[in-house]
Design brief:
This protein is of the alpha/beta class. It contains 12 helices and 21 strands. It starts with 23 loop residues before the first strand and ends in a 28-residue tail after the last helix.
Amino acid sequence: MKVFPISDGSPVQFAGPQPAACDVVVIGGGVIGVMTAWFLAERGLRVTLCEKGRIAGEQSSRNWGWVRQQGRDPAELPIMIEAMRIWKSLAQEFGDSLGFRQEGALYLAKTEAEMAGFAAWLPYAQAHGLDTMMQTRGQISTRLKGAANAWCGGLITPSDARAEPWVAVPILATGAVARGAVIVEHCAVRALDLAGGRVAGVVTESGRIGCSHVVLAGGAWSRLFAQRHGVTFPQLSVRASVAATEPMPDVFAGNAADSDFAFRRRADGGYTIAPGMEHDFYIGPNAFASAVSYLPNLRNDFKSTHFHLAAPSGFPDSWGTKRRWTADEPSPFEATRVLNPAPNMATIGRVQDSFVKAFPGLGRPKLRAVWAGMIDTMPDLVPVIDHAAAIPGLVVATGMSGHGFGIGPGVGRVVADLVLGRDVGHDLSRFRLSRFSDGSKITLGPTL
């Protein structure tokens, strides 16, 4: 198995062609966009997904590969439970190729305060009938082979799962195409085409596509695209560094994390390892504009955040990134086909240190690959899933805050029915776009 995220050097798998018209255009080929296209096509709509680079080229192939219900915001949890049901059906359709296996998610506590935080989330799990359980020190020692017994306890949901992101999402894209969706890679959407203030189409680098609805699922690029049309929301992005080890003995078949490091068993016998909380943040124009909104989040994350004065050229919030452009000129989305940040190697080194400290018998893990991704996040750590009231026909699905891969199939189904005006079956008020402009207090979701 190739253990690398998808990049702009990866071959184009979905070449279209771009149609002149359809019912819905989906902007963005991550898991949210792909699964939205899947369900729209399944419901009989003519849907075109446009991806400026490659399907799953950004965070959808660069994440940890966790499919977890545990630790979700109470408003997200019902959608995630639905997503788990969909993942199971996807695994039946595509077999082992997705790497989907229900081996559990285990959170590890070093302190009694962390244990109290886990216990506070347990009632949400119980209310939804999950198999989540608190774990004692002894139970942790039994579950983790060869562990140094550094934890006082934990929280586990045995029904939680894992999958292989860089192979799973492109496979799901083939499923969307089989259902009738058109997917066009290397095709940046430059702008909406509006008539009377509502969506009448989009303008891509290859021309116009007429449509009555657009879904903006552009991940880290969503805010930049929306701002051009006067739709504003305080989305920012953080850099998350990740590594894949060479094959190692099996210490736990599922996903596990504490405040220092996280790991997931991979199908090739290695582990995907990452910092438990540590990440990097680039200060740009949007960061200044949204500083007040992020203060509650910053108080929690300050010590685990490495601040940088400027993002590299071509990043969405780089000081040099163009904020205004016309539909007939190249856009920032063409300038950076795939957002491919360099990993923070010092962070990865600390993750290796934490791993060997926890499992001294295994030695320092040898790395097969190292990469980073930009996680699109919101001030309250929950996404926007809503109609953009200012532009009829536009639906925004962004800011998954590091939760997108696992919940993606559920969100895709919800967004498809939102476009169609159907009852989505879940309360989406927590995810409304207006919460950042109607005076609502920013309420953080669980930071488990």
